[in-house]
Amino acid sequence: MARHVVLFGDSILDNAAYVPGWPDVAEQLRAELGPEDRVTLLAVDGSISEQVERQLDLCPHDATHVVVSSGGNDILHNAAMLEKEASTVAAALSMLMQARAEFEPPYRSMVQRASQLTVPTALCTIYDANMGPLTATAISIFNDAVTRAIHDAGLDLLDLRLVCNEAADYANPIEPSVAGGAKIAAAIANYVRCVDAKATNSRVFARNSRVFV
Predict the structure, then answer these.
(1) Per residue, what are the HEC states of 95-114?
(2) pLDDT at site 212
(3) Which residues, including other chains, have CB under 8 Å from residue 43's CB and lie 6 or more apart?
(4) Phi and psi at residue 60, in whole multiples of 5°?
(5) pLDDT tens by residue, 32-51
(6) What domain count does the chain have?
(7) Which of 62-71, 74-83, 87-96, 101-110 comes out lowest in average pLDDT?
(8) Cα–Cα dist 6/60, whole Å
(9) In this structure, are residues 45 and 17 in contact, taking their beta carbons and an 8 Å threshold?
(10) 28 Cβ neighbours under 8 A, 6+ residues apart
(11) CA angle at residue 110 from 78 to 62, to 5 degrees?
């Protein structure tokens, strides 16, 4: 059966503006899948979690697989916090936890909306390999909220931290390059094939949270 993979989220999946003249993630995914398969890009560069939640309302009725990348732009709103002074490590952690507390409700709301879809659905972690050690450490606190929300909802997790793990994978500090996009597309294609293999073997797709890279 032909597949219809739908991509929701932000510039991690809608990266055409950052790879001018080269294939974006959606085009690279089409090349990874079969000739009868389709890929629909509904992700929009710059989207935050609340906007991604509204994107999910547009899911085509014939979608067979969904992949969502969200959260990175929400975190960017807190980027200036890393420049603030803190008298103790405890004070610095307190600021980060306050930012996480503001991040988590809209992200969880988006994940819950994704869990209402009736097709296999994977959400991505927020990658960090090209952002420096301080930023990567801060992002790990947000990624903890991300992974907890995804697992609580019983959705699948595509861990982009393990996919885009080299400097060449980034067009700039936060967007995937052609090389990074190719890795993301290959990981999505692998997810789709693994899900289909499980469904074929069991005859029923059981929604249990699993991690893919």
Answers:
(1) HHHHHHHHHHHHHHHHHHHH
(2) 65
(3) 7, 8, 9, 10, 11, 12, 13, 14, 52, 55, 69
(4) -60, 145
(5) 999 999 999 999 999 999 99
(6) 1
(7) 74-83
(8) 8
(9) yes
(10) 181, 182, 184, 185
(11) 140
Domain of residue 83 covers 4-212
CATH number at residue 125: 3.40.50.1110
**How many alpha carbons fall within 13 Å on the CB side of residue 63?**
23
CA-closest candidate to residue 12, choices 141, 157, 127:
127
Residue with tokens 């967007």: 175
**What is the rounded distance in angstroms from the CA atom of residue 181 to the CA atom of residue 205?**
28
